[in-house]
Amino acid sequence: MLERLFAQAGRTAKSGGSPTGGPRVNDQAGELDMLPTDDQTHDGACDHVTVLVALSGTPVDREAMTLACNVVKNKRSHTNYRVELSAVYGISVPRTLAVDAEMPEQVEEAQRTLIAAEEVAESMKLDVQAEYIQARAIGQSVVQLAGDGACALIIVGVPYEVDCDGQFVLSEVADYVLKHATCRVWIVRGNPTEVSTKPAERAKEPAVTR
Q1: Is 59 exposed, middle or buried (0-12, 13-18, 19+ CB in 10 A)?
Q2: Worst-scoring range by mean pLDDT, 28-37, 66-75, 189-198?
Q3: How far apart are CA 193 and CA 195, in angstroms?
Q4: Among 18, 49, 128, 136, which is least packed, fewest CB within 10 Å?
Q5: What is the DSSP letter of 134?
């Protein structure tokens, strides 16, 4: 079950598809449409779409948020329906605790991450709905959140981590979202020089079940 425990308006600033589902070129502007959705999907069906950023609390979040802001600004200039921006940070709750248990250290980290995401959006003159969730399986919760919010695109920031053989491994959140999301998914991989996570360190993290 998804537990949405926190919503933060934060500091905000005012801001003024192809048939195959891939990116298309805008005829008027001659620019690539960065939000790969078919406009016909939204004719009379809904009045807005959402770009959702799944945050990881690592340096790659800034890149993911910047990309999302650029997508939203580009799409808003070429469409007559609303394009909204959301960001979510997931706190993984071990099975030894209730899903709504108090986790003050993790909540503090979540709030710092969300404030940083809001600052990126503010610098680009955009509003963002930022929140954290507590859940057993973060990837599953992100997919559910996207399904509840007319999401057209999920952007997942993936820190650079390696396994025991030194090979890059995809995070559990990114893996689940890629396999199960019903909308488009973009992955932003972190720089290998920014994050160095040893297998022994990852082993200490709470287990995530699906």
Answers
A1: middle
A2: 28-37
A3: 6
A4: 18
A5: E
Q: pTM here?
A: 0.73
Task: Determine which helix (DSSP H) or strand (DSSP E) holds 85, and give its type and residue range.
Answer: strand 82-92
Cβ atoms of 58 and 91 closer than 8 Å: no
What is the average pLDDT value for the chain, to the nearest integer? 77
What is d(CA 34, CA 23) in angstroms, rounded to the nearest whole number?
Answer: 6
Radius of gyration of the chain (CA): 17
Query: For the packed helices 60-76 and 104-123, what is the interaxial angle rounded to 10 degrees?
Result: 40
Beta-sheet pairing, 129-135 with 3-8: antiparallel
Q: What's the longest Cα–Cα distance across the chain?
A: 56
Placement of tokens 């979540």 in the chain: 110
Burial 12-26 (b: 16+ CB within 10 A, else e): eeeeebeeeeeebee
Question: HEC states along 180-204?
Answer: HCCCEEEEEECCCCCCCECHHHHCC
Cα(184)–Cα(37) distance, integer angstroms: 8
